[in-house]
Amino acid sequence: MSENTAAHADMVLTGGSVVTVDDGFTVASAVAITGDRITAVGDDDRIRALAGPSTEVVDLAGRTVLPGINDAHLHLAMFGLAGFSVDLNGVDSVRALNDALTDGPVGPGGSEWLIGEGWREANIPEFDADVPGPHRSLIDAVTADRPTVLHHASRHSVLVNTAALRIAGVTRDTPDPAGGRIVRDASGEPTGLFLEGAKGLITQYVPDYSERERLAAIESAMHRLNALGITSVTDPIVWPELLRDYTTLRRDDRMTVRVNALLHWDWPSPASTSERLETALGFAGLSTGLGDDWLRIGGAKLFADGVPTQCTAWLHDPYPSSGDHGHLITAGDDDEARYEELLRMIELAHRNRLQVQVHVTGDRAADAAADGIVRALKADPWPDARHALIHGTLLSEDSYALLAEHGISVITSSLMKSHSGASMTRAIGADRWARAFPAGALLAAGVHVADSSDAPITHPDWLRGIATFAGAAPGPFSDVPPDLRLSREQAIRLWTTAGAYLENAEKRKGTISPGALADLVVLDGDFLGADDTALQGLAPTLTVVGGRVVHSA
């Protein structure tokens, strides 16, 4: 092992299994840290010799050390702010829903608004039925005059009560906005369900959280992630106010998770237009790489389509229930116009040297986004662009070679397999869902793949994600076919080196190597030796970011 031993180390960890995740997947027994860098990796005797009188010595007692976990798609601020809302993830009936909403917490900024997050139609029989389906009448009695917004687990739709409709002034005569839909009943009245870009008709009236609330929520979320061994995240939706919040936390040295920010100027609407994007980019003056190892501009987030559970993903083959294919959520009156708009937006971000990461869940949307990236690269070569498709839930198998040829990465969502199976099989059928997030096939084709939690859509349990892609996913509808499964080595790379590559940071983090940032996690068991079921029970006992202990059990 190589080492840099100019002075005594600040911390040494010995007597364990140090899984470096370097090119050779080397396993050592000890590691030394000086300042914010790893200075040596090797056997116990060599590393112990680097300890001085003031060195912190950690006896691993056989435990495993891994590089700090890099979640390639995690909504950090949303994960923190979800703590202010009613948690609806476990709700399985309208009665349970109403019980949860009764006496709900004070709304943002001390307002009367009631916010809930995490409901799934497949879990609530009354919502899963054709009539009434998710309908405001089912929550009006308990919410009364208190305006209420309930975010779907996917965050691609909201259900609101009648009081919220009144405040927003939405009636039967309100037209659908570009990239969104107001769901209406047989008589034309709004049901209270708003899809995609239509959410903004309501959410624009919800007061903002105060700066103090926002900063505290983000800081708390970072500590919760540290306890899971997570040291870096890509936040895929960073609007201007949130970027200022992250800058404040960085300036005040309050960050314990490294943040790679993807800019999005129109949130809470996923939809945007090329005109708005061009205006934003003309004034912003930002490009990929601005910042430092704690907070950097990673690129721009674009949305091509919605999600299969809301039938808003764009598919080649139709949805079984409706015969519809969905469509892109970009502006335009027909598929061709929306397709060209998506390609214009990709080219705009690319030309401004912002890495493009495009939300795609339907196979037809993924093909369209890949077309746009290829067109942009051919017109204006940028060798280190490292553009990516986010989720890649359903991908055309004949697209894999194109993705590999042009260096287009895919950021999968392994944890969706066990969180969304019931809703997804209902929407697209069991066969299509079984082959969702085809990480194994993508890697075999030479496509760069990183994995992610998409928290707060799921809980960021990366060990469960690794077990899932290895073929040991818990729960129904979550099996991964044998030809799509990953080895343990492949799976941990998706949560470490792969995310670092997308940030152009693979020389600085993602491995336990001399000179790399001292980001690591210690697990209480044998990561390599545990079977896939036992793997999910391992727990982080120590997390270090930049040489600083940020979690200790």
UniProtKB/TrEMBL annotation:
<feature type="domain" description="Amidohydrolase 3">
    <location>
        <begin position="56"/>
        <end position="551"/>
    </location>
</feature>
<dbReference type="Pfam" id="PF07969">
    <property type="entry name" value="Amidohydro_3"/>
</dbReference>
<dbReference type="InterPro" id="IPR033932">
    <property type="entry name" value="YtcJ-like"/>
</dbReference>
<dbReference type="GO" id="GO:0016810">
    <property type="term" value="F:hydrolase activity, acting on carbon-nitrogen (but not peptide) bonds"/>
</dbReference>
<protein>
    <submittedName>
        <fullName>Amidohydrolase</fullName>
    </submittedName>
</protein>
<dbReference type="InterPro" id="IPR011059">
    <property type="entry name" value="Metal-dep_hydrolase_composite"/>
</dbReference>
<dbReference type="InterPro" id="IPR013108">
    <property type="entry name" value="Amidohydro_3"/>
</dbReference>
<dbReference type="InterPro" id="IPR032466">
    <property type="entry name" value="Metal_Hydrolase"/>
</dbReference>
<keyword id="KW-0378">Hydrolase</keyword>
